[in-house]
Amino acid sequence: MNWLVLGQIFAINLVYIMLNTIRTLLTMRGYRNLAPILAIIEITIYTLGLSMVMSYIEENIMYLIFYALGFGVGIYLGMLVENRIALGYSVMQVFTEDDNHVLADSLREHGYGVTIQPGYGRNGNRLVLTILTPRSTEKALRNTINELNPNAFFISYDAKYIHGGFWTKHISPPQIIEENFEQDQKEGFEKPDEVITKDEYIE
Q: Would you say 101 and 116 are in contact if contact means Cβ atoms under 8 Å apart?
């Protein structure tokens, strides 16, 4: 049994699965240019790793075990890397008691665009706040909400496509609009000359 080959098989499959996990997540988030590039690298590494394990599998079952270990560790590391780089945007929905827009106004003072909808819960009137934020700053937004209103309930989900609206100060609106302009044209939207201001949004 060759420990060097075992290490190579483990490392190759780890890198392959890590790239596969990242590429899958990028595809789901609409990164059409980056995902194919990763796919080319991914399949090259996969072919190399598979050929190595097939050459040694009859010699010792440990080669297959290390191949499988690389698979599992690769998925875990791929998820860690994707969470670390935090590509894309999230939509945060906050459910809170009717506080006369105190929380919404405070979030706007922090630079976030907030859309308010009325709601009704078991204990009376509620407000539903919808906020767009880069995934890289989602944790900061959660912390801000907890500081301003510890009793607020909130959920977040990925935003795949974005068009128009008021953006947080952390987002570059022209860049986002340019990225989605092609899709806008297909759907019949007109490209705005500029994003509306915060004051216009609040009105």
A: yes
Global confidence as pTM: 0.57
Pull the structure tokens for residue 51: 């050929």
Provide, for the chain, the percentages of residues in helix, strand and coil under a 3-state DSSP scheme, each rounded to the nearest 5: 55, 15, 25
User: Predicted confidence band at 171 (pLDDT cuts at 50, 70, 90)?
Assistant: very low
DSSP sequence for 154-180: EEEEEE----SS---TTS-HHHHHHHH
Q: What does the block give as tokens for 153? A: 């309930």
pLDDT digits (tens, 9 = 90+) for 52-81: 888 888 888 888 888 889 889 988 888 888
User: Which helix H or strand E contains 19, and what residues bound it?
Assistant: helix 3-28
In sequence order, the 6+-apart residues with CB closer than 8 A to the CB of 54 are none
